[in-house]
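User: What would this chain look like folded?
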Amino acid sequence: MEMEERTALERINQCEKGHVLLAALMLIVLLGIAGMTSLFLASQDGPGVSAMREDSVAQQLADGAADMVMSWFHDPSSTPTAIAGLLAKRQGDLASGPSFFDATGRSQFIGTIDRPDIFLRASNPADDQVLNQPPSGLFTSLRGLGRILAVKVYGPLQPGLLSTVEVTAATIGPRPITRTVQLQLGALSIPAVRAAVQAGQSLGIPQSGGASPVLVHWGDQRVLGDLAVQRVEDLVLKSSSAPVTGQSYDQMLSVQDRWTEYWIGGMVSVIAPPPGQGANPPLADNVHLQQYPTPGVRLDQWDYDSLKKLALRWGTYYRLDRMGQLHPQGASDSDQGVTPAAALESQAVGASHGLVFIDTVDGQRPQADNLGTLLLDTDYVEGLLVVQGHVVLRPRASGKSVPALSPSPPGAQSLGTRVPVQLSGIHFNGLLYAVGAIRIERSARLYGAVMAGQSVTTIGTGDVIEIWYNADLAQGLFRGLPVVYRAPGTWMAKY
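Assistant: Here's the prediction, encoded as structure tokens.
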């Protein structure tokens, strides 16, 4: 009996071992099949991954070229002559300055996809030079990855926008891929600034020590009221032979400039006139009196609502309290605010704040009772400072050395006709706008322009603000603000 049980157990063990072996063999077969399948799929996935990479490169090339087109709008010096038609679309307007839109709000770009306003093709050697051989920038490093085949700029597909940009690019390789990117451009509407100084009231008062504290190079003075000067010689004489330098007038042998004109709504009073000539002696031909109300002193209008909206989207917004502190947008009532120096100081030339909108004390449109006073006791500020209140200028240091370009000679618009000049001791680089008054408590130098809804005054004899006008402002070119921008939701890849 024991012998039979032992034999049966051995047979059972052998059977179990056979099952285990069989299972192992089946597992080995299955793993082998899985491995072979993985190898097969991997061999098939290589071309797919490569194609996806090539597709991505093609789209990035096209997208980068679209950005290059946008840069042509912002920097006229880099705009190729082959597409000068881009900037030619920006027509001058007597009321608001250059604009890409006509009086009805219609874009100057009116072409279609079949007949675009601008069409560059790589098959044209001159166009290929523009598209694929720029001396610097994106395509210097990406030249080996692909080429731009075509660029089209034509009318917008949506009302209110500026234009459509369509770029076609192709990769370089054994299996090149071509892709087209299309996007819409919008344009900011911001008035040009066409004079170095604009004042809504008088400059200076006709009494001892009451002369205007404003000195201007390279641009006009526009004063809605009267202008008071100490001597006739203090009025800048316009002369085509005047030197184009960064010298102050007190460093020059004679007070002369090539561009300055005076447009005065009332009269010019000379506090210390030449003997025997009375209070109103003869003045130079570049001094134009009694311009208001007819024909009128044309002051550029910067609307409160539109500038505020622009700053909330593209710039920086502060509310000014009655203690002179600044509160950023969205700050709570318990916020203590920051000092103007902490918020607005620029540490280096080129560190522009862009558009900075400083609101009234209650955040409502400016009235006589809601204007605060902003104290600028900084060394150097760079940007477009729009203050819905009064401004006190009290620079605390010597300023910075700033590269500048003179205006073009009368009748010439080429960038090459502008003289490069290094200006020293500049405290403000950009636009200083105050809806109220501007008071000078320490002499200051500015490259750009000044606009005051009221007057520009000083607290003491000898404190002046000396201004070199930046002619870019007359073209609506403001550092830190885009001329054009990608309209949200308009980018698409076309296959």
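Residues 263 and 288 are 5 Å apart (CA to CA). If you want, I can go into more detail on any region.
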